[in-house]
Amino acid sequence: MSPLLPRIVPSPEGKPLPQDDTAAAFRTFARDLAAGRRPWTTEAAGFLSGLFDQLAGSWDSDLATGRDDPLHDALARGGSFPLGTCLELGSGTGLFTPTLEAAFGTVISIDLSELMLRHAAGRSPLRVRADASALPSADASVSVVAAIDMLLFPQELARVLAPDGVLLWINQLGQDGPLYLSSEEVAAALPGQWTSVEAAAGWGSWPLCDAFADPTTPGCACQSAAAPCMRRAGRKGPPYVVRRSGRVECGSADSSPTRWPRPTPEP
Ligand SMILES: C[S@@+](CC[C@H](N)C(=O)[O-])C[C@H]1O[C@@H](n2cnc3c(N)ncnc32)[C@H](O)[C@@H]1O
User: Fold this and answer.
1) By alpha-carbon position, which residue is closest to atom 7 of ligand 1?
2) CATH (residue range 20-211)
């Protein structure tokens, strides 16, 4: 179980609920895909790119929630983030790219639908039409993967994430969302061991997952019992520090030159 932070952003009135049967069918698809119970096929890719091409024109006005509580909450309370490129998967019309850019600097926005990407012009400066199941990114090259209401491709995501990288998974409508995955489902689908922290915010929820760093592996300097690696401790306590050399060490946020400054978490 990942640590559940207390909710600080209430769920406002008027939550938009997607059509029940359609949402349930998509959720089953998303769960089965993430868990490897069904394959990702060219037919599925073609169906979804066509569907989102059709929805692109009305996405911002009719289909987007118009809220960004879960993303803001995750950025504020998820802990420290590594410096480096953020890959935004299923970026759609780019509604969240400016927020991700403000947090991480460089954001590469990936989407299957050409028309969703076209509508993102002006919001997402670096747009790539690609399938998140086969990313055009080198191994271990990405610091943050942000996926907002998106399908999970666990193996591919783990391939491109750097050893200190994190996955920011946002369910805009929480359990009601058509692509909802719980933090347990996300963590179970990812290869290897991951630690995560999660919270509900507004209408949605978020887990933030990072790969479980084994302090005994070369490169991790957290081998002292007196100073256990903070990644091992499930992101509690002061954040670990990633040195520019790539070494991972325990430390405080103050001593880290390579972490984005995070706002002080609310008590
Ligand atoms: C529910 S929309 C969310 C869009 C955006 N993140 C937002 O919250 O406004 C899902 C997006 O993921 C894209 N998508 C679905 N499957 C994908 C895949 N395999 N690779 C890349 N993008 C994909 C769709 O084209 C669509 O734009």
Assistant:
1) 92
2) 3.40.50.150
